[in-house]
Amino acid sequence: MDEATESLQDFITNDPAAAVNKRISCEVGVAIIQRSLNSIQVADLSTAQKLLEDWNPLGDEPSPLEEILSFRKHSLLGRVKRLQGNFDESLKLLETAHQVSQKPSQLIFDEDLRDLTCDLADALRELDEPMTGEGYLRTEIMRRTERPDPLTGKSLLELALSEALFAQERYEEAEKICVDIESRIGF
């Protein structure tokens, strides 16, 4: 996988004719996202960071696939920065990804919003802004619950919410959420 990604990246950077081909750029972007996920799983954060920072959409008007890849890039790079302790940078990247997900378009980010919202709330908690994180979490929990076909993943959002409440010293509310989750999941 590493050699394939590097070959595609070299092809784009060394061949001016290929540089205008958004399709090839997107293929490289997909490979880079996957390789960065692999690096994150083995705690090789510097490799993940370098890979993600090296890819960008071509041109001023990204294609829908480039928008998706850009969203994934910012959300993953935000997570990497948070894990490295760079909370301010993390927050900027995660907010960029969140803004992309909220723009009216044909793109739907439902499957990614749970993790993004949790990462965003965690970064805000690390920056001593747990109330702002709580707002993001409650909004996403409500959005998922009010859909005609409720989305899964509510428990993870609620656990992140309990952490935000705990950081605000709202211990009883945090404990109530944890007990509720435990009763549903059957730990």
Automatic annotation (TrEMBL):
<dbReference type="InterPro" id="IPR011990">
    <property type="entry name" value="TPR-like_helical_dom_sf"/>
</dbReference>
<protein>
    <recommendedName>
        <fullName>MalT-like TPR region domain-containing protein</fullName>
    </recommendedName>
</protein>
